[in-house]
Design goal:
Blueprint (H helix, E strand, L loop, with lengths): L1 E4 L7 H14 L4 E5 L5 H9 L2 E4 L1 H12 L6
Parallel strand pairs: 1-2, 2-3
Helix pairs in contact: 1-2
Length: 74
């Protein structure tokens, strides 16, 4: 399950709470929240506690550059 957030400010607890709830409700094995920004410290803590992969701007850019080079995301 993947949730994308396009925010002007850092992504907070609400977005991570949503995916944590969805993970439990749907029985998902893996959950990600991807943003064009960064996560607040409380959001990062909640994500880590619940095994949610949080992808911030820097890592997203790296992935796009790798994909552009034909290296894929694997």
């Amino acid at each position: 399950m993947v949730q994308a957030k396009r925010y002007k400010n850092k992504v907070g607890l609400k977005a991570v709470q949503e995916i944590v709830s969805a993970k439990s409700y749907y029985g998902a094995d893996e959950c990600w929240v991807i943003t064009n920004n960064y996560f607040t410290a409380p959001a990062m803590k909640l994500g880590n506690i619940n095994d949610v992969l949080l992808i911030e701007w820097d890592e997203l850019v790296e992935w796009m550059l790798e994909e552009d080079k034909g290296e894929g995301l694997a």
